[in-house]
Structure formats: structure tokens, C-alpha cells
Design goal:
single chain; alpha+beta; six-stranded antiparallel β-sheet
């Protein structure tokens, strides 16, 4: 009895020694973001790709080969109603449904998930396939660019040709096959999965206060800072920097100049106009255009998130504000604003839209912080960005409210028709009044006669008067 037991132990040990080199030979990468986890392992001539969902609900997940959705082969996977995994080879065309790929050069073979898989949460669906590896290409460059996509709407049926609803999120990752696959820590979760009921539109995903740094250490997948920035990240950074500077620095500066200096100098309008239009307009428009370019470079849908829709609305509101300012100034320059109505409705609307644009800009920049993390998978921005935003959201409103203390002085100057910055009173002439200085070139000396104003000729005729002495009594 003892001998067979020892024989079984010995055979098991020899089998373990035989499998050990293959286990140690595994190369690949693993990582997670807010929506999916990806595990890629290279063993001999085969690469195993595995994806699992982090967020619910799960519709379908796709893993493609290339840097862009357009003209890239991919594999789309989803569980059917019986729990079986459907694998569908597709070919991406950009902003269209990927077409069925009948004879792909690298065919995906169904396999079971490997032992080194990350498991983001117990109810995650794990889907895997393997393909032959291009060892020649990996010898010169051990990295591979992949694209991923996540949808919340599951296709109907088991057919690999089933219709696919548009993806909700898509991204790009880079796998490094030069690194050894590390076993995930027991119970480790690379990213805390969002709980059901979180508002997906706001993308308000927050990292835990004490994240498990062992999970992301040693991998360049999903946002390691050692990975160089691509064009997508550069476009997003340029978009964020320019629009934040335009909306949160230039526009508040122009508004504060108007609020604080209009009662002290008549040159306040020129400074206000230069800052809010001459400087801010090109910076804001160019920075805003970088946003759609970044979305297009990532083959993602346009104007579907709260950040994108609010950005479009805010740009239109800002352009309306610029037009209102020009309209008000032109009417005043043409003398079409009565002197007894210094605040017509257009002026009030101008003030309201200006405050609204700046208030929306604070919300938009804050949501852009989360968009950076979601769109680039490089983790949250540095803490100083949040601290600076918080300080600015306090300083700007406080400075504007403090400037309202000058409103009584402004109203007094308008009632008394006092020129800002001086003690000289100015009186607006009635509409249609003539000025004798402007009409001195007339040959008619009766310059005030038949005037539309209150002036009329009071000239008396000078007749000859004969003076006679009084008779004597």
C-alpha cells in the first residue's frame, strides 16, 4: 500500500517538474480599467487573449488588432442566454457596425481562461480565445497594439453574425510580451468595480483611497506613465489646456475687469472686449475643436456623453455672448439706446449668459478630469489639478460678488450722467435736437428757426422810433 502511494507521489512530482518550465515560460501582460480586464499570455507559438467585464450590464466585448477601429480585424464575444460564449470574427470600418470576417488570417480558437487571469469580481464573465503568434515580429518588437470595445446591449441569438449595437466605450492598449506573467494577488482587484446604479453618463468613477498598487505594478497596460503619449492623449491634453485657460482664466478676467473698473475709467469696455473676444475667442474655438478630433482619433461616437453635449452647448452659449456684446456696443455707438434706459433687456441677457458660461465651464472642466481617466486609461489626474480647480471655484465667485459693491456707484453715475473717471457732467441731447455749432455753415442767420428741438427764434423786428418833445402846459 505504501509503495503505490509513493509511486503516485513520484509520478505527480515528475509531471509537475515537466509542466513547470511551461508555466515559467509564460510571457504577457494583464490589467484593468473601469469597464474591462484584459489578460494576454504568450506560450510557445500561441497567444491567449482573455477579456472579462468589470461594469454591468455586459452586452458584448471586443478585442481587435491595430491602433484604430477602422480597417482592423477583431473578435467580438458575448454570452448567450444559456451562458455559452459566442465568438464572432469581425472587421472594423470605423463608425459602422463591424462586418463579419469569413476567412481571417488569424482565426480565433475557443479556449478556457488561463490560470493567471485577473478576476475583477465574482460575477464577471470571462471569455477567451487563442491565435497563432507572429514570433518573427515579436523578436524585433515585443509589443502589440490592441483595441477594445465595450457595449451594454447584448446581441440576440447565438449566431456569430448577429447584429451588434454600437459600443459604449472603446480604447487602445499596448501589450508587452517581454515581461513575465505575474500571478494576481489573492483576492486582488485591479480596479474597484463601480456599483450598480452609478451614473454612467457622468463617468464619476473614483479610485479607492488606498488602491492595491501591487496589481498595476510592473505592467504598461492601461495607463502606465512609462508608455509614451500617443496622438489621442496629446489631442485630449491640448483640448483640456486650451479650453480650461480660455473659459476659466480669460473669460473670468474679462468679466472682473468690467465689474471692477467700469466706474473708474471709460476704457473698461476696450479691455473687456480685447480679453473676452480678441484673446479668448481663437483660444476657445481651437481648443474646442481638439475635442472632436480626439474622439475621432479614437473611433468613438460624438456627442453621446454629458461632457460632450455640455461642451457643444457651452460653445454655442459663448458665441451668443460674443454676438450680444457686439450688438450692444453697436447700438450704443449709433445712439440707438435712450439715455434714460442704460440697462435694456439685451444688457441684462448679456450679464446672465456671461455668468452662465463661466458656471458651466467650472462643471465642464471638472467632468473633463474624469473624462481624461476614462478616455486614456492613465489613471486620475494629479491632486494639484483638483486643488487648483477647487481654489479657483472659490476665488472667482468671491471676486465677482465683492465687485457688486460698486453697483450703487455705477447707478449713481448713470443717474447723474457722470463720466467714469472724471467729475465732468455730460448731458445727452434729445433725439433730433439741432446743435448750433454743427449748423453754423448755413447762410440763414435764423439758425434756430423751425428746429425739431425746443429752440425757436425770438428775434424782434427793430422799427424806427420817433421821439418828440412833450408839449408845454
Amino acid at each position: 500500500m505504501i509503495l503505490p502511494s509513493l509511486l503516485q507521489v513520484g509520478l505527480s512530482f515528475l509531471l509537475w517538474l515537466q509542466l513547470l518550465p511551461h508555466t515559467l515560460a509564460l510571457k504577457g501582460d494583464s490589467g484593468c480599467n473601469q469597464f474591462i480586464c484584459v489578460n494576454v499570455t504568450l506560450q510557445d507559438e500561441w497567444i491567449t487573449y482573455e477579456v472579462s467585464n468589470v461594469y454591468e450590464p455586459l452586452g458584448w466585448l471586443a478585442l481587435g488588432f491595430g491602433k484604430f477601429m477602422s480597417h482592423s480585424p477583431m473578435v467580438v464575444m458575448w454570452p448567450d442566454k444559456d451562458g455559452e460564449i459566442v465568438r464572432s470574427p469581425r472587421y472594423g470600418w470605423g463608425h459602422e457596425e463591424p462586418s463579419n470576417f469569413m476567412n481571417p488570417r488569424r482565426f480565433p480558437f475557443p479556449v478556457d481562461p488561463v490560470a493567471t487571469s485577473w478576476l475583477p469580481q465574482p460575477n464577471s464573465v470571462r471569455m477567451a480565445f487563442n491565435m497563432t503568434a507572429n514570433l518573427t515580429a515579436l523578436e524585433s518588437d515585443p509589443t502589440e497594439d490592441l483595441i477594445w470595445a465595450y457595449s451594454m446591449i447584448r446581441p440576440s441569438g447565438k449566431s456569430p453574425r448577429a447584429y451588434l449595437q454600437g459600443h459604449y466605450r472603446a480604447g487602445r492598449i499596448r501589450v508587452n510580451y517581454a515581461e513575465e506573467v505575474k500571478l494576481p494577488p489573492t483576492g486582488g482587484r485591479p480596479v474597484i468595480a463601480p456599483t450598480p446604479g452609478d451614473n454612467m453618463d457622468s463617468h464619476d468613477h473614483h479610485e479607492p483611497e488606498h488602491p492595491n498598487t501591487d496589481v498595476v505594478e510592473g505592467t504598461d497596460i492601461f495607463g502606465n506613465e512609462s508608455v509614451p503619449w500617443g496622438n489621442h492623449e496629446k489631442l485630449i491634453a491640448a483640448h483640456g489646456i486650451l479650453v480650461a485657460f480660455g473659459f476659466l482664466v480669460l473669460l473670468p478676467s474679462g468679466s472682473l475687469v468690467a465689474r471692477w473698473t467700469r466706474t473708474f475709467t471709460p476704457k473698461w469696455f476696450k479691455a473687456h472686449s480685447i480679453i473676452n473676444m480678441t484673446f479668448a475667442l481663437p483660444i476657445i474655438v481651437i481648443g474646442w475643436l481638439f475635442g472632436p478630433l480626439a474622439v475621432a482619433s479614437h473611433d468613438a461616437p460624438h456627442f453621446v456623453t454629458a461632457h460632450q453635449i455640455c461642451g457643444l452647448f457651452m460653445l454655442g452659449l459663448y458665441l451668443l455672448q460674443v454676438w450680444l456684446g457686439r450688438y450692444i456696443h453697436r447700438r450704443r455707438a449709433q445712439g440707438l439706446v435712450p439715455g434714460n434706459k442704460p440697462h435694456p433687456p439685451s444688457n441684462i441677457l448679456h450679464v446672465f449668459t456671461g455668468i452662465s458660461v463661466i458656471a458651466l465651464a467650472f462643471f465642464q472642466v471638472r467632468s473633463g478630469f474624469d473624462e481624461w481617466q476614462t478616455a486614456t486609461n492613465r489613471g486620475p489626474l494629479h491632486a494639484w489639478c483638483h486643488d487648483l480647480w477647487l481654489a479657483w471655484v472659490i476665488i472667482v465667485p468671491f471676486a465677482y460678488l465683492a465687485g457688486l459693491s460698486l453697483v450703487p456707484r455705477q447707478f449713481y453715475q448713470e443717474r447723474q450722467q457722470i463720466m467714469p473717471g472724471g467729475d465732468i457732467n455730460y448731458v445727452a441731447l434729445p433725439d433730433g435736437a439741432d446743435s448750433p455749432l454743427l449748423n453754423e455753415e448755413r447762410q440763414d442767420h435764423d439758425v434756430y428757426e423751425a428746429s425739431a428741438g425746443a429752440f425757436r427764434s425770438t428775434r424782434l423786428s427793430m422799427d424806427t422810433v420817433k421821439v418828440e418833445a412833450a408839449p408845454e402846459k
